[in-house]
Amino acid sequence: MNRTLGRSGIEVSALGVGTWAMGGPWWGGDQPLGWGPADDAESVRALRRAFEMGVTLYDTADTYGCGHAETVLGEALRDVRDDVVIASKWGYTFDAGTKQATGEDASPEYLRSAVEASLRRLGTDRIDVYQLHLTNLEFPLALELRDACEELVAAGKIRWYGWSTDDPARAAFFATGEHCTVVQARLNVMEDAPAMIAVAEEHDLAVLCRSPLAMGLLARESFDLPRDDVRALAPEWMEYFVDGQPSPAFFSAREALRSSLTAGGRTLAQGALAWLWDRSPRLLPIPGCRTVAQVEENVSPLLAARTDPS
Ligand SMILES: NC(=O)c1ccc[n+]([C@@H]2O[C@H](COP(=O)([O-])OP(=O)(O)OC[C@H]3O[C@@H](n4cnc5c(N)ncnc54)[C@H](OP(=O)(O)O)[C@@H]3O)[C@@H](O)[C@H]2O)c1
For the chain, which terminal residue's Cβ has fewer other Cβ atoms within 10 angstroms, N or C? Predict the structure, then answer.
């Protein structure tokens, strides 16, 4: 099952794979920003399995593991580079040596250096979709970055770009750039975003749905999280987890949805992803997967859709 990546016209699998957890640990001071230890060999196996199963869309960011996720992704898919679409992000700064987040930089100069660093780590000569990671950046600064992205398109460093933001006005603003083709937004069965979908329809964008499984809450039954998992010591922006456990409000919401999501023998995760596919043809869920087992569970409905003659 394929979908169109907004106005780019590129066909991609209806499901992508997100690589935040594959970056391994990094920190903002004492606050973990990763998802505990990553097993690089298993990450590579999971990415290869996803490709074998037909996944052609992969989302990453320079900041995940302070560059590590990009390196792992680049190595895993090097020999099939021309057959996949790689989406990465820039905007947050970090120190790869200490694995510390160091802030953010919204200057065009930083954008130009960040893209070169991502290209090196990914082992590629172009990024298919480059996304501004600074969710709430002021409009004048975003305008400069939109124009700088157009220059990077002209230079062949990136093909298309977008903004990772939950604000429909910001998504529409960035879409005034000719090669803006996505918005990345939080969207899952517990948190719909009709205004964002309307912007995507109006401006011919695809919506890369981040946290489509509510950071695992829509996939796992129990949580015993290591201390270096961002969900264990949840930062203030975290909604889904409190003290390492599902927040009561989201836990109740999930339980209320359980029977409809698991209808027909689907797993909870499969039901949550299917809801997004049904919600709008503009939506492309990018569930974070870090094991072969997770990939197989999340991707198998895509294969079923491909072979279903109805
Ligand atoms: N732009 C941004 O600011 C931003 C923010 C968030 C995410 N993202 C992107 O969106 C992607 C996905 O979002 P997300 O990582 O927040 O969360 P998510 O996709 O909602 O949840 C991913 C987590 O759920 C668990 N999981 C996945 N499939 C499973 C399965 N079949 N069975 C059991 N558990 C399963 C895994 O955690 P465990 O391995 O711990 O079980 C996995 O790491 C990220 O990887 C990243 O690429 C972007």
Answer: C
Distance CA 250, CA 226 (A): 21
Q: How far is the CA of 17 from the centre of ligand 1 (A)?
A: 9
Does the pLDDT of residue 308 top 60, yes or no?
A: no
| Strand 180-186 relative to strand 158-164, pairing | parallel
Give, using CA atoms, the residue closest to atom 14 of ligand 1. 211
Amino acid identity of residue 6, one-letter, is G
> What residue ranges do the domains of the chain occupy?
2-307
Report the phi/psi class of residue 69: left, alpha or beta, with left for phi > 0 and alpha for psi in -120 to 50: alpha
Is the CB of 164 inside a 6 Å radius of any atom of ligand 1?
yes
20 lines ligand 1 (CB under 6 A): yes
Among protein residues, the one with the nearest Cα to ligand 1's atom 7 is 210
| Atom number in ligand 1 closest to CA 214 | 20
Check pLDDT > 60 for residue 310: no
How far is CA 287 from each of CA 46, 122, 137, 190, 216, rounded to the nearest angstrom? 13, 20, 25, 15, 9
The Å distance, Cα 156 to ligand 1 centre, comes to: 30
CB 19 within 8 A of CB 72: yes
CATH topology of domain 2-307: TIM Barrel (3.20.20)
Tell me whether strands 92-95 and 31-32 are parallel, antiparallel or unpaired.
unpaired
- Indicate the average pLDDT of the chain: 96
Q: How far apart are CA 16 and CA 269, in angstroms?
A: 14
Contact 88, 127 (CB under 8 A): yes
Q: Give the tokens for residue 115.
A: 């893209």
How far apart CA 218 and CA 272 sit, in angstroms, is 7
Q: Tens of pLDDT along 57-70?
A: 999 999 999 999 99
- Give the predicted TM-score (pTM) of the model: 0.97
Q: Which residue is listed with tokens 């090196």?
A: 120
Nearest CA to ligand 1 atom 45: 18
CA of 159 to the centre of ligand 1 (A): 25
